[in-house]
Amino acid sequence: MKLKDGLILREVAGQFVVVPTGKRVQEVTSIVYISSSGAYLWDYMKDHEFQKEDLVKKILEHYTGVTGEQAAVDIEKFLKTLADNNILDDGKIRGRVFVKMPKGTEKDGV
Which terminus of the chain, N or C, has fewer Cβ atoms within 10 Å? Predict the structure, then answer.
């Protein structure tokens, strides 16, 4: 997985905020704040494809007193937040998908 393009991370008033640019402005409609740990991971994620395990390893290398289990739980929540806000390109389609069927294709009441 990877971060979608057109997103930058900025520190505003001591908080880290994901800022959409270009076409992403229409897709990322919420203000998304991330922690300093999330900002540390973002710095890696913006330049690499990654798996959850890669991020757990980065956290364990950078922070002391964190268990692998707790890091995995926290990173799962972090990735869910990114995915739910259309920031993470993880191969899953989210949101609404509309398919327009040509007229006359209805058969048997379908």
Answer: C
